[in-house]
Amino acid sequence: MTVLAAAADLLAAGGRVVLLDVRWALGDDQGREKYLAGHLPGAVFVDLETELADPPSAASGRHPLPSLQRLQSAARRWGIRDGDAVVAYDATGGLAAARGWWLLRWGGLPDVRLLDGGLDAWRRAGGPVEPGDVVPEPGDVMLTGGGMPVLTIDEAASLPASGGVLLDARAGERYRGEVEPIDPRAGHVPGATSAPTTENLAADGTFRPPGELAERFDTLGVRPGGDVAVYCGSGVTAAHEVAALAAAGIEAALWPGSWSQWSADPARPVATAPKPG
To answer: Domain containing 204: what range?
Structure first.
């Protein structure tokens, strides 16, 4: 699976590429304003809260997956047509854009990539930016679904005991239960392994090389061909970890409900030890 698009390659690319600007961060609602101030030429703004998720609930988490029909309608608004190449980006190393990448791959689109390093890498490569809004002609893409593996809460709960690896992509202090800025309880799923998403990135915000990523995941007990799944707070940055695993040649499932779903159920146990087990 080709996951990443280099800024220099995107600048030199011929043909049609649909660009999606997915600027979002927890506690920051200024993504659209930042987009309007300057974005890749022709890029369409994607609202993570309303277009890449259903409304939040205790039963499903803060960012439940949208229905395939809702996602298809959004993709058509973004101008995506059957056969298009799509590149998603943000200004945070792909931590938000990966949600768009994952959803479109889940929806069945074969050619969806993340701009490696995002807006900063584009500017470093000499790429221009433009202000204002872009409203494309509606697309006609048909999404079939089933393109990426997904776990339910019960499947995630049983994965470590069955010999699989459940990676917690949140910051280490949230995994250890030292802080919890948004969800009902602090800690992690018993048996899960701490694997902060930010460690997938180099200092310049690009993904670490595939070999380094493979070594990183190997030290966490992940093996090619093994059962691997990822969660985070609400299934957003977990998608970034799925992308990093894919770049390293490892397929991983995403648990969309993640910690926001687990911690809202008082019957679910919580662990706070610094390591699984």
So the answer is: 153-262
